[in-house]
Automatic annotation (TrEMBL):
GO molecular function: 4 iron, 4 sulfur cluster binding; class I DNA-(apurinic or apyrimidinic site) endonuclease activity; DNA binding; DNA N-glycosylase activity; metal ion binding
Protein name, as recorded: Endonuclease III
Binding site residues for [4Fe-4S] cluster: 188, 195, 198, 204
InterPro entries per UniProt: DNA_glycosylase, Endonuclease3_FeS-loop_motif, Endouclease-III_FeS-bd_BS, HhH-GPD_domain, HhH_base_excis_C, HhH_motif, Nth
Length: 216
């Protein structure tokens, strides 16, 4: 089986199992998605969704966040962790959105990554999930599973993103993130991947090694 055939099978099986999935962070506007994604660093999506439910009732616009009191915002987002940096970045990010983008969230990668607290991962979440621009988001699930499945040998998220862009058709870039997250949560759980139950085992280099008792 060629590498392309293997990747096609993996993509087909992921789609059959999880379908076209949606972003796990609750949001109704692009700026809400941007703020939620900044909050999601080192935090679970479930926790972020709990916090943003009240947060977006209190701060109803980019302007509200731009004018927020740092200490108060820190308290509001405390349970997501790293609250000081996150609060500082959200305020600075929204101030720049107001000053340079008329309060709108840009879709351009360079403009997005010039905002405080916004790296390629966050920018790609917004580009893919809000603007529908093909983008690959490399989070911990995508990083781990891409290595296990033999799609990359890199550990650096940006290198992985470029590796995946080369081998995955563009129309699958948005879904691959949410599908791999779903798989990482249900079957390929970080500390105890359920390889015996996994529909990808035939195509998974890491899973086959684990089956033979090899440490990977
Ligand atoms: S075969 Fe095992 S290691 Fe590979 S994706 Fe499935 S659960 Fe993960």
């Amino acid at each position: 089986m060629t590498k392309k055939e293997k990747i096609d099978q993996i993509l087909l099986l992921l789609r059959e199992q999880y379908g076209p999935t949606r972003c796990y962070l609750d949001h109704e506007t692009p700026w809400q998605l941007l703020v939620a994604t900044i909050l999601s660093a080192q935090c679970t999506d479930d926790r972020v969704n709990i916090v943003t439910k009240d947060l977006f009732q209190k701060y109803k616009s980019v302007k509200d966040f731009a004018e927020a009191d740092l200490k108060e915002l820190e308290k509001d987002i405390h349970s997501t962790g790293f609250y000081h940096n996150k609060a500082k970045n959200i305020i600075a990010c929204c101030q720049k959105l107001l000053a340079e983008h008329n309060g709108e969230v840009p879709s351009d990668l360079e403009a997005l990554t010039s905002l405080a607290g916004v790296g390629r991962k966050t920018a790609n979440v917004v580009r893919g999930n809000w603007y529908g621009i093909p983008s690959i988001v490399v989070d911990t699930h995508v990083k781990r599973l891409s290595n296990l499945l033999g799609l990359t040998k890199n550990q650096d998220p940006v290198k992985i993103e470029f590796d995946l862009m080369k081998i995955i058709p563009e129309d699958k870039w948005i879904d691959i993130n949410t599908q791999l997250i779903a798989h990482g949560r249900k079957i390929c759980i970080a500390r105890r991947p359920k390889c015996n139950e996994c529909f990808l085992l035939t195509y998974c280099t890491g899973g086959q090694k684990l089956q033979k008792g090899k440490i990977i």
